[in-house]
Amino acid sequence: MPTTYPTELKVKAIRRYEKGESIKALSQELHVSQSTLYQWRKKYCSIKTPNHTYTPAKFDAISRRLQKLEHHMEIIRQTGYLSSVPLQKKLATLEKLYNRPDNPFSVHELCDALNVARGTFYNHVFRRADRSKY
Question: The pTM is what?
Answer without folding.
Answer: 0.46
